[in-house]
Write a structure and sequence with these properties.
InterPro entries: P-loop_NTPase. This is Putative phosphotransacetylase protein. It comes from Kuenenia stuttgartiensis. The chain is an alpha/beta fold. The chain has a single domain, classed as Rossmann fold (3-Layer(aba) Sandwich). Helix content is 38%, strand content 22%.
Amino acid sequence: MRRVYDTSIYCIFIAPFREKSHLRRPGLKLKKDGYNIGYFKPVGFSPVFVDDVLTDEDAVFLSRALDVNEPLQSISPVIFTEDMLQRLVKGENLNIREKTMEAFHIASSGKDIMIIRGIGRLTCGTCLGFSELDFITEVNAKVYLLINSNHTLKCLTASSMLQMY
């Protein structure tokens, strides 16, 4: 009998990589091994409309490649657009933390493992009132940091990252 893991893996790419393939391969391997996996990208910077839903292009690709059957709004809930930037500049409260966490709970429901795609800077999202580090801490994710083109992988915990700041 397979042990069920309640695990979130937050992947941050520091150097240029082919991020999609670096997430797709392990995701497909985990699926093949019988794990029910999910995919989540808290903030999308490549806006695209799919079936009249504003979402992130990379999130669409990976959710399809990994056969994740969650609503696109739950896979990438915050899409950074010029309209969002204007609303932030005007001081509008966009409830990013609440929107992100609600979507994450939907996307992660019933999943053994969540693969979460980060932007590469732990402070990313600070202007939104909810940084990557805030998110990592809130979901207690294990962080995998790809730091060079030799595919070096480092694993950090949220608490060890908090000590860096």
